[in-house]
């Protein structure tokens, strides 16, 4: 499979926060070193404060300094919650800094092997995505003191050059790691550090809270960085903070999974082994519950278990190399699988040998002082877990449970970690938050598409954490300083069962009508799109010149702001989805006066042009959109059922297929009180309809006394996608509404609404 990437507004904001700090810097074509920063300190501080002001952050009073760089070097911090794509953000920031200012030499500094390999893989899998957006991709390599020819290419190579280096490679007393400071015969009697520092690189620090010692900072300063950019969810030392996406905001915007905690209540005298056995069993149980819902959709479910000692999972002295926890896992897994009822999912489980469904990754075995045992399967596990994320995400790959020591605490994550077991004790807030962060990223399906439809994102994306602490204790530690959103108590959640309304003839008939499949077709050509876009730009594109206004007494003076060149074709292609060739044809077709406005404000021109092009695309898509109904039907209401804390549930419902509702409560109240409504239900998250603008979740199915309709609710309010939904359901002869229409009384005597079949008396 291949992970799919798309432009996300919140990530674009994080990129702009850094890039805009250097507004006014002239662009210079790169040579073998980055051009120096030409902004006066006052102008740089003014830019930083402008970025902070628009983000609502505290304003810097003076440029921050750090022992990692010379005085006067910009030190910018970006705070992004784990799982929101900070690696993607700083790679895109690299591309934007090159496009706008010409800087081309970059170093990404990481604190360890797991993060280094994750960063390397991110550069690999995003390469084509960025090539399409920018016309080029960054060339990256991992620093290795035995392969110094890569430094020659870093210095002299064309385009964006990125060196990835872990801190031990320049901050360790080990002999091999000191070679970076030695004159080497194989390197023409030069020192690698001199070649690196001569490039005046932009230094990006991933997880700076782990690279904060005086020795590390002093070593970093020897790179002579042009600027230092720091990216983390948990900064310990703040510099000039220019962007913040904290845990609370990430949860509120539905950019990460919601969290459910299952805490064990056990007496202090309980044996640790007994506690761990229960935890492992609960992890497996939660895994199977989630997998039972998602496996038919092609969404791989992974579970991650943090352990206190490597030997508890991997015992190299045993014939089968299984440690205590691994043996417990095998016993409990086989018992729970044996209890599964017969059916497709049971047969799916039977196809996965237990010995192949769990693996471990450990950076170093503390008992043997070895990284991994070369005679064991750890080498393959290392490659699978750390380097081949796409294979690990494939439903065909049998590994589903991963045991790890501290090695996967930071830097590594996988979008399909749904369950986490804390088989260790921790009172370290940052450590706890980083560990939970391994599972916050939104899941992907077998095609690499993110499950991020706002209407149903948290129906699918839920991280269950099984801990040996009480629920209250664990959540208190998690919330302290981190501000995660609502955290549910997994012990109190009950999966709702469907009541008699689900079997009523009116509802079954409504389900039958919307279970038909349909595909769309769109009929328009590129020439028509280009012509409409050219006309729209010539008619409606407006750009105000960028300038600084100075008022003195009765006189006003205007000074134009020097604009930075942009990859305009890449801008338009990335924002609208058209090809660079089509974007070029549109720009070539507009009047000279229209295109001349680009000089007034390149960024404003790109924004306005992208908006107009998108509008014309929507018009053509909708004008030429039609749906064809296919033979065959799909099952809609599978075993995916909502979970709820019954202690906080509202009143029992009369007309829903469940006794309680978990969302859109205002709409639920209206449907409950309408006389013409027989039965209603929220459509499951996997019921989506195809549109040219992406799959769309339509909302609620309502069975009326003599008809049915679908009502959109929450989430996506894009009028173009809603229009697509209307046409889809029109093809099925089912009305579609954005909101419930006003009820018309169907009773002449004013009787009260009759209770549904699922009501309790």
What does this protein structure show overall?
- The protein has 761 residues and is of the alpha/beta class.
- The chain has four domains: 11-27 and 36-245, P-loop containing nucleotide triphosphate hydrolases (Rossmann fold); 259-495, P-loop containing nucleotide triphosphate hydrolases (Rossmann fold), CATH 3.40.50; 524-623, no CATH class; 635-737, no CATH class.
- It is built from 25 helices and 24 strands.
- The strands form six sheets. A seven-stranded parallel sheet has the order 3-4-2-5-6-1-7, sandwiched between helices. A seven-stranded parallel sheet has the order 10-11-9-12-13-8-14, with helices on both faces. Strands 21-22-23-24 form a four-stranded mixed sheet, with helices on both faces.
- Helix 1 (9-19) packs across helix 3 (86-101), helix 19 crosses helix 21 (580-589) and helix 20 crosses helix 21 (580-589).
- It is globular.
- The model is unreliable at 369-377 and 744-761 (pLDDT under 50).
SSE diagram, text form:
Blueprint: H1 9-19, H2 41-55, E1 75-80, H3 86-101, E2 105-110, H4 113-134, E3 139-142, H5 149-156, E4 161-166, H6 168-171, H7 192-198, E5 202-206, H8 214-221, E6 227-232, E7 240-245, H9 247-252, E8 258-263, H10 272-294, E9 302-307, H11 324-338, H12 344-350, E10 358-361, H13 378-387, H14 389-393, E11 401-404, E12 417-423, H15 429-437, H16 457-460, E13 462-467, H17 471-479, E14 487-489, E15 493-495, H18 505-514, E16 516-522, H19 526-540, E17 547-552, E18 555-560, H20 568-576, H21 580-589, H22 592-596, H23 602-623, E19 625-633, E20 643-645, H24 665-673, E21 677-682, E22 700-704, E23 708-711, H25 719-731, E24 736-737
Parallel strand pairs: 1-6, 1-7, 2-4, 2-5, 3-4, 5-6, 8-13, 8-14, 9-11, 9-12, 10-11, 12-13, 23-24
Antiparallel strand pairs: 15-20, 16-19, 17-18, 21-22, 22-23
InterPro entries: Helicase/UvrB_N, P-loop_NTPase, RE_endonuc_C
Keywords: ATP-binding, Helicase, Hydrolase, Nucleotide-binding
Domain Helicase/UvrB N-terminal: 5-235
């Amino acid at each position: 499979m291949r992970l799919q990437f798309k432009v996300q507004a919140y990530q674009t904001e994080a990129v702009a926060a850094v890039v805009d700090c250097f507004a006014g810097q002239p662009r210079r074509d790169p040579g073998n070193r980055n051009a120096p920063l030409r902004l006066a300190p006052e102008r740089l501080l003014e830019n930083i404060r402008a970025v902070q002001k628009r983000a609502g952050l505290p304003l810097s009073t003076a440029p921050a300094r750090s022992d990692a760089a010379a005085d006067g070097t910009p030190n910018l911090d970006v705070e992004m919650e784990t799982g929101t794509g900070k690696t993607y953000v700083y790679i895109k920031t690299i591309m934007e800094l090159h496009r706008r200012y010409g800087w081309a030499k970059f170093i990404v500094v990481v604190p360890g092997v797991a993060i280094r390999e994750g960063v390397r893989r991110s550069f690999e899998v995003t390469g084509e995505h960025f090539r399409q957006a920018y016309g080029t991709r960054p060339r990256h390599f991992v620093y290795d003191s035995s392969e110094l020819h890569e430094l020659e290419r870093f210095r002299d190579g064309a385009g964006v050059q990125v060196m990835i280096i872990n801190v031990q490679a320049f901050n360790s007393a080990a002999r091999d790691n000191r070679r970076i400071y030695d004159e080497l015969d194989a390197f023409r009697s030069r020192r690698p550090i001199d070649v690196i520092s001569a490039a005046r690189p932009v230094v990006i620090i991933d997880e700076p809270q782990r690279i904060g010692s005086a020795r590390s900072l002093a070593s970093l300063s020897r790179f002579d960085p042009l600027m230092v950019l720091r990216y983390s969810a948990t900064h310990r030392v703040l510099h000039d903070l220019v962007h913040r996406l904290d845990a609370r905001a990430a949860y509120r915007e539905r950019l990460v999974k919601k969290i459910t905690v299952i805490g064990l209540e056990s007496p202090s005298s309980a044996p640790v082994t007994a506690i761990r056995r229960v935890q492992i069993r609960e992890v497996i149980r939660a895994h199977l519950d989630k997998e039972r819902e998602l496996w038919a959709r092609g969404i791989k479910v992974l579970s991650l278990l943090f352990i206190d000692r490597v030997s508890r999972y991997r015992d190299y002295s045993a014939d089968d190399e299984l440690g205590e926890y691994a043996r417990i896992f095998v016993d409990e897994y086989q018992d729970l699988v044996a209890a599964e009822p017969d059916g497709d999912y049971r047969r799916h489980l039977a196809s996965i040998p237990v010995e192949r469904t769990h693996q471990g990754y450990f950076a170093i075995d503390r008992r043997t002082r070895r990284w991994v045992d070369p005679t064991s399967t750890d080498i393959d596990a290392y490659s699978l877990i750390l380097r081949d994320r796409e294979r690990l995400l494939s439903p065909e790959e049998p590994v589903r449970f991963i045991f790890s020591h501290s090695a996967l605490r930071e830097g590594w994550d996988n979008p399909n970690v749904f369950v986490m077991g804390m088989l260790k004790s921790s009172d370290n807030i940052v450590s706890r938050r980083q560990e939970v962060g391994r599972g916050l990223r939104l899941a992907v399906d077998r095609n690499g598409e993110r499950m991020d439809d706002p209407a149903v994102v948290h129906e699918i994306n839920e991280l269950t954490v099984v801990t040996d602490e009480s629920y209250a204790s664990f959540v208190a530690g998690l919330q302290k300083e981190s501000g995660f959103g609502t955290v549910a108590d997994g012990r109190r959640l009950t999966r709702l069962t469907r009541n008699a309304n689900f079997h009523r003839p009116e509802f079954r008939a409504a389900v039958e009508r919307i279970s038909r499949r349909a595909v769309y077709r769109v009929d328009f050509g590129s020439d028509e799109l280009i012509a409409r876009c050219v006309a729209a730009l010539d008619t409606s594109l407006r750009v105000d010149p960028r300038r600084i206004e100075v008022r003195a007494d009765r006189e006003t003076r205007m000074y134009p702001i020097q604009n930075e060149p942009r990859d305009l074709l890449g801008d338009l292609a990335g924002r609208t989805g058209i090809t660079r060739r089509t974007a070029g044809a549109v720009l070539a077709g507009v009047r000279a006066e229209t295109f001349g406005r680009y000089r007034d404000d390149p960024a404003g021109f790109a924004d306005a042009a992208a908006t107009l092009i998108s509008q014309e695309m929507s018009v053509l898509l909708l004008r030429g959109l039609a749906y064809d109904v296919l033979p065959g039907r799909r099952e809609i209401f599978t075993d995916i059922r909502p979970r709820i804390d019954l202690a906080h549930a509202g009143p029992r419902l009369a007309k829903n297929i469940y006794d309680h509702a978990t969302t859109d409560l205002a709409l639920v109240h209206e449907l409950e009180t309408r006389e013409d409504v027989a039965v209603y239900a929220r459509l499951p998250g996997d019921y989506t309809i195809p549109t040219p603008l992406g799959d769309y979740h339509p909302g609620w199915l309502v069975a009326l006394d003599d008809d049915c309709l679908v009502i959109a609710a929450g989430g996506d309010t894009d009028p173009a996608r809603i229009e697509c939904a209307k046409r889809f359901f029109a093809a099925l002869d089912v009305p579609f509404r954005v909101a419930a229409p006003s009820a018309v009384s169907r009773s002449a005597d004013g009787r009260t609404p009759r209770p549904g079949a699922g009501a309790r008396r």
